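Trying the structure run again after the queue cleared.
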Amino acid sequence: MRKRNLIVSLVAVSCLVMFSAVAGAARTQSKGLTGSAQDFKRAQFDNSSTHISNQWFPLKPGAQLTYKGSAIPEGEKARVTRRVVSTVTDLSKWIDGVRTLVIWERDYTAGKLGESELAFFAQDKAGNVWLVGEYPEEYENGKFADAPTWISGHKGARAGIAMLANPRLGSPDYAQGFAPPPIEFKDRARVYKKDQKTCVPVKCYTHVLVIEEFEQGEPGIFHLKYYAPKVGLVRVGWRGANEVEKETLALVKRQQLSSKAMAKVRREALKLDKHAYKRSEVYRYTPRAKPLK
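Done. Tokens:
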């Protein structure tokens, strides 16, 4: 299971069947939503697709969440520290016919930047949030190493569900996105628990939703993500006899950035967007990221 961005995952491909806005919205909100290509095509998006107001996954431009924790790197026994900084930018990008909101996330391991990523999310009219692509730059010893990019609608990749509009216990598991080799992303998720309480350095939260993520064909490995209403992700944990990374993260800071800080975020995100056209073949199919209007 490749290390996923915290604010998370998506769907795509084509389907020529027409649905009314009412019927499409009703179907995408149903219990049977599984994150399939057909689900994504049936979903109804409009000009407000970048206004992500899902109570479990709110993404307000300028919001910045910082997490700290630890994990066991592959092939090692000792834990190392991790810090993740996730920032909602005020940029948008069109992907697979949908206008998406751009999230910029930085992942530090043992104090060093290991990954800087742009992730693209959109909310349909029923309130489901979709992950529509990712551009992660990976670094080793401070130098660029790889950019395993996937963009919905290209090279067999398709969007998936980041968060259901109405997550229910017992609902079918769903695709968080799909990308064939060499990316090979096939993670799935399901509702694990509801109405939980969890405490992190920021505060204690109640009515918490717990989502369990896993990869088909790899039994006994589960990532747990805890979502607080109107806040979003507040904790990351794990379970399973075969889990070796044993990653833990907790929300340590939550803030709304100033206009000056946002200007810096915008510059850095646009710089990463520019890099992507040189380092990823599939990224070249997308138009440039632009400020929200």
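The first helix runs from residue 21 to 28. Worth checking whether this holds up in the mutant runs.
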